[in-house]
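User: quick one, sequence for these tokens?
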């Protein structure tokens, strides 16, 4: 394992640099074959990371991780890795569900939480609830929901909105309670096509849900693309952010670029992180089909080194 160390600072824990699952997605597509999870662990460990994301994308993958959790945990131990955040992708959670559909979603979510706890995770993560549109039955699970196909879908009926919002908040209250029973935070990732793509929308939703373990997974590229002021978001969300996805963006189109390849003002961003006393985790989230990167391995390793330089010169940063 590689270890990047700076000078010591009087803090309880060093900032943890995590390899986001986008590294694997960039190599093998979305979703990557869950049957190769052990190989994915070996690849991220071989790159030098001891802190990694894993992901259960949809019902089949969540069930696979649960069924094979012993084998996967053995691989984590073999390669000296930990999984601080397990991603559980269940877009149906935000749908206009009947009682049976909701029960199935909550059962899958709890299965994912049990798996996450077994791996020693601190939290689980999913995209924010999708916009309540009339999706086709064969709609694939996607990283971002945008484009002409989404724009052509009708929303739920206007008369249904208020009841839907109340049911949605109640469902996510239940989800957060399940996560809390396993000692987990529940992080919502901002993406196109969700109800919580911005600081304002997340805070509005978090107030409706009213769960202390509901967190915001600040994604610097996604937030910059929608013209969020990242330092101000850090200030407003300080008590709701424990996990940040780090990548750059030009502000012109979707992309998860290596830092320094876009237009984010990182100096101010990290200055504000230190100001609010952030001591959570940073995940390198570079790549994806929308981002052309010639050498993905180099991009991750160079970003890890760059993160060390950006953080306080007297703070230990562990890879």
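Assistant:
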């Amino acid at each position: 394992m590689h270890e990047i160390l700076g000078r010591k600072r009087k803090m309880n824990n060093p900032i943890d640099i995590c390899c986001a699952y986008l590294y694997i997605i960039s190599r093998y597509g979305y979703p990557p074959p869950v049957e190769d999870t052990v190989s994915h662990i070996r690849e991220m460990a071989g790159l030098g990371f001891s802190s990694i994301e894993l992901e259960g994308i949809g019902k089949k993958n969540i069930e696979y991780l649960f069924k094979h959790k012993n084998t996967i945990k053995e691989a984590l131990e073999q390669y000296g890795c930990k999984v601080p955040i397990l991603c559980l992708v269940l877009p149906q959670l935000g749908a206009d569900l009947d009682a049976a559909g909701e029960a199935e979603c909550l059962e899958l979510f709890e299965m994912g939480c049990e798996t996450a706890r077994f791996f020693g995770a601190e939290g689980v993560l999913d995209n924010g609830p999708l916009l309540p549109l009339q999706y086709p039955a064969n709609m694939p699970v996607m990283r971002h929901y945008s484009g002409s196909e989404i724009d052509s879908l009708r929303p739920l009926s206007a008369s249904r909105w208020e009841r839907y919002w109340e049911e949605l908040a109640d469902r996510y209250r239940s989800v957060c309670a399940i996560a809390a029973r396993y000692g987990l935070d529940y992080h919502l990732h901002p993406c196109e096509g969700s109800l919580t793509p911005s600081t304002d929308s997340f805070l509005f939703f978090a107030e409706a849900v009213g769960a202390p373990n509901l967190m915001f997974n600040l994604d610097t590229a996604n937030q910059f693309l929608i013209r969020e002021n990242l330092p101000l978001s850090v200030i407003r969300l300080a008590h709701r952010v424990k996990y940040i996805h780090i990548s750059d963006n030009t502000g012109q189109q979707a992309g998860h670029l290596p830092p320094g390849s876009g237009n984010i003002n990182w100096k101010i961003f990290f200055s504000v992180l230190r100001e609010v006393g952030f001591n959570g985790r940073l995940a390198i989230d570079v790549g994806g089909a929308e981002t052309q990167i010639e050498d993905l391995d180099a991009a991750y390793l160079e970003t890890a080194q760059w993160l060390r330089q950006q953080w306080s010169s007297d703070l230990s940063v562990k890879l």
